[in-house]
Amino acid sequence: MRNNRICQLFGIQYPLIQAGMVWASGWRLAAAVSEAGGLGILGAGSMHPETLENHIQKLKAVTNKPFGVNLPLLYPEMELLIDVLIREQVPIVFTSAGNPRLWTSFLKDRGCTVIHVVSSVSFALKAIEAGVDGVVAEGFEAGGHNGREETTTMTLLPLVRKSISAPLIAAGGIATGEAMLAAFALGAEAVQVGSRFVASLEASCHEAFKKKVIDSGEGSTELTLKELTPVRLLKNSFYEQVKRHYAEGAKPEILAQLLGKGRAKKGMFEGDLEEGELEIGQVAALIDTIIPASAIVEEMLSAYNTTLARLQQIGPIDL
Amino acid sequence: MRNNRICQLFGIQYPLIQAGMVWASGWRLAAAVSEAGGLGILGAGSMHPETLENHIQKLKAVTNKPFGVNLPLLYPEMELLIDVLIREQVPIVFTSAGNPRLWTSFLKDRGCTVIHVVSSVSFALKAIEAGVDGVVAEGFEAGGHNGREETTTMTLLPLVRKSISAPLIAAGGIATGEAMLAAFALGAEAVQVGSRFVASLEASCHEAFKKKVIDSGEGSTELTLKELTPVRLLKNSFYEQVKRHYAEGAKPEILAQLLGKGRAKKGMFEGDLEEGELEIGQVAALIDTIIPASAIVEEMLSAYNTTLARLQQIGPIDL
Predict the structure, then answer these.
(1) Dihedral angle at the C-alpha atoms of A172, A174, A180, A185, nearest 10 degrees?
(2) From B163, which residue of chain A is nearest by alpha-carbon distance?
């Protein structure tokens, strides 16, 4: 992996990035992943500016490895959050959920490496035009907010790979070394892993949510609320209420009212598994242990190697 | 690939199967793929018994390689179609869209190898229980009829691989050698390729439909009509009518009435791109040539090898 562009760009050992998820990606998780040789990312989407500053300082106190911050551009307090990033000299910023033209030059002029998360080729091209250093292409199976095109990782990755030459990170459905190798086959140079790290000891989300994740199975999630911002959720009472609203033909305003404020915090951070919003990827069905983040990194990298060896063993096809 | 279980099971050279698609998979396409060393499959879902018999006989007249027939179990005239399969000693039957317990023993007792197409682990387990020789696990991105769980190929394959030890064929989003290798990384032993073969010279669908497929891009398809049988369609006037019906809160009966009979034939076989139903996978966005089926097989296998070589070149991760 010595020539891996993502490793070089970020100054990390392994092309494995921990997603900056709301209510799960605090300093403990990011520090553990960065210390393990990947890239740890703080999820600023669920942090006020002072909270973010606090997490960055705690993170810096325990590791001098590179780390990043994820910034969903549509969230409030953006200017204050950006101030924190600049003041704390955050080396790497992953922007998402918004227009990459808004802040890319500003951040790059101040020394940040900027990556934008996209769900389609057209957004990937816009991000490149805005001057980002690379993109994360995130498929339909991913947890949390997602694109309207519903393009899956299997289809999205080669489409984006064909369209841009910049460094490409795969996301959506990747919780194992097998999937990491699959993403590399499809043209990715690194993977961003979310759901798997929710079920880590260091994730800052509620214990009850972690347990719900490892207990979930096939068909436990759905991409819904497409009229607002599409989001993949674990099915629970809140989800059933959403379904009932749909069955009754509820307009977007009514859905927004049902969603209200603080549902995600209530579910993922406070552990209200019934009334809260529980964001997770389809791949939760494959996850059944809560282990240290460093063990997740090790397991994935080691399975990547085992899978590569297995494919080498099968060998090329005699033509 | 000498020890590949799918190659051994079917007696074919390459673990590449052409999907038995309605209105596209006639004897010319199946013969071309079987002659090229893959497995060609007739799509009985759009054939009356006498048409199927005719296609089987024409196919046998031009190749003595193994071939298969796809049988959507919910279609009418099933007993007559089965009679044809037995009379013509069809060696391999892929069943789909129905209960695998219905015909698996019957077919196996008469010497057929039986594979069932599934969209979930629970259906995979039912198929194994019914005695099938292997399963096709088909992800959400696939064209045509699909499961309700919306599980993508990236997530579905490892879930099914973990649950069954029988031979596993991947489908959904696979039109290239890169995706074929990705599927192998995720645990598949062969791939079933649909959309790519729609855009082949030999496919029996209408020329206008083939052109529409290669002209389509990202976001051109959607999985819809979930209240009837979920189906992935190219967006056209008919699709817009479906959307309008949904916006008006139409009940399933009204949707069924809109769909009516013969929409798929009208679109894919007769080339009515506006009023017809056009079934294709998300991966259509990646396809931009109409070429001979043998060239598709060659391109895919050769890209599989190139991609394997690229991953070997990158090498394992130093742990």
Answers:
(1) -40
(2) A286
Q: Which of residues 249-278 of A touch B (CB under 8 A)?
A: 249
pLDDT in the model for residue B76 = 87
Return the sign of the alpha-carbon dihedral for residues B171, B176, B180, B185.
Answer: negative
Query: Does pLDDT of B16 surpass 90?
Result: yes
Q: Could you write out the three-class secondary structure of A127-164?
A: HHHCCCCEEEEECCCCCEECCCCCCCHHHHHHHHHHHC
Question: For the segment B26-85, what is each residue's pLDDT rounded down to a tens digit?
Answer: 999 999 999 999 999 999 999 999 999 999 999 999 999 999 999 999 888 999 999 999
pTM of the model: 0.97
The answer to whether residue B299 neighbours chain A at the CB level (below 8 Å) is no
Q: Chain B: give the shortest CA distance to residue A110, in Å.
A: 33
| pLDDT of B70 | 98
pLDDT of residue B249: 86
Q: What's the number of CA atoms in the CB half-sphere (13 Å) around residue B14?
A: 29
Say whether A319 and B298 touch across the interface (CB within 8 A). Answer: yes
Which one of B153, B218, B309 has the shortest CB-CB distance to A159?
B218
Domains of chain B as residue ranges with CATH: 5-205+289-314 (3.20.20.70), 214-283 (no CATH)
Which residue in A139, A153, A179 is closest to B158 by CB distance?
A: A179
Give one word for B198, left, alpha or beta, with left for phi > 0 and alpha for psi -120 to 50.
alpha
Of B3, B120, B159, the CB nearest to A286: B159
Residue A122 amino acid letter: S
Q: What is the pLDDT of residues A237-266, one digit of tens each?
A: 999 999 999 988 899 999 999 999 899 999
Write the residue in A141, A218, A317 that is nearest to B1 by C-beta: A317
Q: Which of B180, B218, B280 should one mutate to test binding to chain A, selecting the residue with the greatest count of A CBs within 10 A?
A: B218
Residue numbers of chain A with a pLDDT score lower than 70: none
Give B241-278 pLDDT, tens digit per residue: 999 999 888 999 999 999 998 999 999 999 999 999 99
Pick from B279, B295, B58: nearest CA to B200 = B295
Contacts of B17 by beta carbon, 8 Å cutoff, 6+ apart: B6, B38, B39, B41, B68, B136, B169, B190, B191, B192, B193
Shortest CA gap A149–chain B (Å): 5
The whole-angstrom distance between B252's CA and the closest CA on chain A is 12
